[in-house]
């Protein structure tokens, strides 16, 4: 995809995505949505990209949705980019389809699922989707010039882009409600005090600071960060009474091997490998329980779930 409303620049394993409609304060459009989703898809597929910075061109980060269509901005029937929602066999709307999702939510979820660490470098005004798209980013730093606003209540609409889920988890329920109930626009210092951003720096220091943070990750822990994101709770595969974090859905052959190993070695009732999980899994591979070519990867990252509490994951192939 050729980008018209964002910039995609990779240097020294760090990707910088710049919202690039400075004359419109980087107002969020359907085109920008599609380009951002594509950019994160592209970044995940590129091993040369090991950290991502998101910032804005000009004096704003993102001033919210493009309101040039007036009242039609939030009128589904009046928007050509909104498809008809598909129906399930029982006649109900298929709510999981992209056609019924808000565009900001699609971007937010794509950022959340990104395998690379994402740093928000908030250079200026960030309101509406301009602030809610930041919430799934791993680290947020702001310029002194930045302003934030969850302004939905003042527009007569509800918070979008999964913000009612993310925001309380970042700043706490009381702070989240104050900002969303009032709909006020607040300065970077208040964002810092409320826990929305990690640091506030002078405008000229913003991108160098973001790159320094990214550089530290790239040079030391990028592989482990990516691994940790692959074994998040939403990627746990459940089968019968066992659970383990996996790289996608395992094959039926791998599932059967795990079941056989667990039962034969009495792992569920007798933790024979406790304290030596890595060697224990290697032993099981040597005993022939797993398909030829299987690999065992040790991963103890923040209490990732595993069979009987062991800290290991399985990767077939």
Please give a structural write-up:
- By secondary structure, the chain is an alpha/beta fold.
- The protein has helices spanning 30-45, 103-112, 129-132, 152-155, 163-171, 173-182, 188-193, 206-220, 222-230, 252-264, 277-286; strands at 6-11, 14-19, 51-56, 60-62, 118-122, 125-127, 139-143, 147-149, 185-187, 199-201, 236-239, 242-245, 295-298, 312-315.
- A 6-stranded mixed β-sheet has the order 1-2-3-5-7-10, with helices on both faces.
- Strand 11 and strand 12 (242-245) form a beta hairpin.
- Helix 1 (30-45) runs parallel beside helix 2 (103-112) and helix 5 (163-171) crosses helix 6.
- The radius of gyration is 23 Å and the shape is globular.
- The two termini are 31 Å apart.
Present the secondary structure layout.
Layout: E1 6-11, E2 14-19, H1 30-45, E3 51-56, E4 60-62, H2 103-112, E5 118-122, E6 125-127, H3 129-132, E7 139-143, E8 147-149, H4 152-155, H5 163-171, H6 173-182, E9 185-187, H7 188-193, E10 199-201, H8 206-220, H9 222-230, E11 236-239, E12 242-245, H10 252-264, H11 277-286, E13 295-298, E14 312-315
Parallel strand pairs: 2-3, 3-5, 4-6, 5-7, 6-8, 7-10
Antiparallel strand pairs: 1-2, 8-9, 11-12, 13-14
Helix pairs in contact: 1-2, 5-6
